[in-house]
Amino acid sequence: MVLTDLDATYRPDLRRDVFVKEEYHFLNVSGIGTFTVYDNFDCTFECLGNPSCLSLNLAASKGADGTLWCELLTSSKYINPDEYKENKTSHHFSLKGRFRPKSCVEYGQQGAYKDGVYKIYDNSGNTFPAYCDLRSEPGIAWTLVMSWSRENRGISSFKRAPFQINAAENENSSKWDRYRLSLKRMRSLQAHSTHWRATCSYPTHGIDFRDYLRGNFKDFNIIDFLGSATCKRVEYINIRGYNGTNLTAPFWQILNSFTLHIDSRYSRYTKCEFNAASTGAVLSEDNFGYYGSFNTNFRCTQGTQSTTQWWFGALV
């Protein structure tokens, strides 16, 4: 038998199969509202009838008037684990199966604020772990899709495999020095993202917008793009401190030859608006990928353990 939310609404005896009850616990987050009920079925009924409800707090004992206070929540203990506490006055109920996030964006929309590895669902309903950056750019949540160190720049997944090629590396471990999601997972995340970005040594520097690149899929679909010295519009770009906003920059991505990247020295020979050739570029300097030639003044390639990241994201 498949139990749906509708079944549970009209068959209260089955709600125990929909909710997980944790006695004498409380989730301390902002709620949808607090009201009085006569029993736990009334409280769970209200939660099932509200699409935003992911869990609830319910008084452990009735008051003098014979009622219980019930608080509906838009978050869960999985999203805000630091706010999940033991207490002596309430029980906590969390829904089974309602929250199935397809990207880190949905965690941000539910109030998650802690960076780290979260469970994501792909479009087929399968789960996988992914690193979420929920704090570096307020209002935007980012899911990591690829990260590698300069030391590992020669591996095909990071040197010669465009985004449209399935070239997964440690996709269940989120290793900063050697990590790439499968094409299937990237496609799933793309469907729930509006933007992409590239960062340099994120675990060390975080986000200060130096050696940083951001664009949106509407202007530039980085997964399906193939080309050489092709001018593509970006929202923001910074290479070695030289930056630009809402302009075109030259990109390369060729099957069996180049992963997506910019050649800042060659940019002087293109008709693109961004040109970082005269700001300390070295011969054939590659930025944000490929790294056939690299500059130690660029954060992604300063040292052997310096890393490059690519992310997909959207507004929360």
TrEMBL record:
This is Fibrinogen C-terminal domain-containing protein. It comes from the Eukaryota. InterPro entries: Fibrinogen-like_C, Fibrinogen_a/b/g_C_1. It comes from Porites lobata.
